[in-house]
Amino acid sequence: MTPSTGETQLVGEATQKPEYRRTQVQETSNLHMERNRLLTDGSAQHIRDAFNVLRAKLLQNTRKERLNTIMVTSPRRREGKTIVATNLAMAIARDARQTALLVDVNLRWPGVAQTLGVCRDQQTGIEDYLIGQTELPELMVNPGIEKLVVLPACQATTESADLLSSPRMHTMVRECKNRYPDRYVIFDCPHVLDMPDALVFSTYVDGVILVVEEGKTSQEDIRASIDMLGDANIIGVVLNKHVTQ
């Protein structure tokens, strides 16, 4: 079954403000975003610049060939990949020519909804779509940020590898890639080492961004992660929590 996003696509250019008819609108607060190290108008300029550079490099390396489905992962847990994925999606949404869909496929430890401060009362997420209990239009959320839509995961599951390898997941990624020509789809994925989820999912997407934490991630873990990802198109490595002097 081919999923339908149920969103209202922009009429004409991506610079026009979208109207969401079926997508829920749950505006998050700047205070919540700042507490979770997400970009706001009040964020330090060097942080805003860092994500603008990341966006520019990503678009430069992918837009011409329309490589628009990107997974963000890390060697191990708690290296900051969810924050990087969320900030990158927001940065892309601010680009005049693009829209962004942020999808939480970290089904063992979902974190996008909590980080953004949306879906507080929502008990269903992408995991329910994958087992056929709901359709995507019921799950989409706009967090009050123009041209950004979020597809959250809400309930942790230990069956994540089976769900990610399901035909329904593969069909959804393909649909997300091809539905809107101006859209980038950013997938917040599980970490690479010690579990199969990211390895399964890397075969679905156009490219991979690997997030490593300065002072924590070892060179051995970085090399092991790159080796495990095999033939995946690793677009770049992001050094997270880097302190500039």
Describe this entry's structure for a reader.
The chain has 245 residues and is α/β, with parallel strands linked by helices. 33% of the residues lie in helices and 16% in strands. Helix 9 links the parallel strand 7 and strand 8. Helix 2 packs across helix 3. The longest helix is centred in the N-terminal third of the chain and has 18 residues. It is globular, with a radius of gyration of 17 Å. The N terminus is likely disordered.
What would you say about this model in short?
The protein is built from 9 helices and 8 strands. The chain has 245 residues and is α/β, with parallel strands linked by helices.
Topology, pairings included?
Layout: E1 24-25, H1 30-35, H2 45-62, E2 69-73, H3 81-94, E3 99-104, H4 112-116, H5 126-130, E4 141-142, E5 148-151, H6 160-164, H7 167-179, E6 183-188, H8 197-201, E7 207-213, H9 219-229, E8 234-240
Parallel strand pairs: 1-4, 2-6, 2-7, 3-5, 3-6, 7-8
Helix pairs in contact: 2-3
Choose one word for the global shape: globular
Largest sheet: 6 strands, parallel
Mean pLDDT: 88
**Strand-pairing-aware structural class:** alpha/beta
**Helix segment tally:** 9
Contiguous uncertain segments of 5+ residues: 1-15
The span between the termini is 53 Å
Rg calculated over all Cα atoms: 17 Å
The percent range for strand residues is: 15-25%
Task: List key phrases describing it.
single chain; 245 residues; alpha/beta; six-stranded parallel beta sheet; two-stranded parallel ribbon; 8 strands
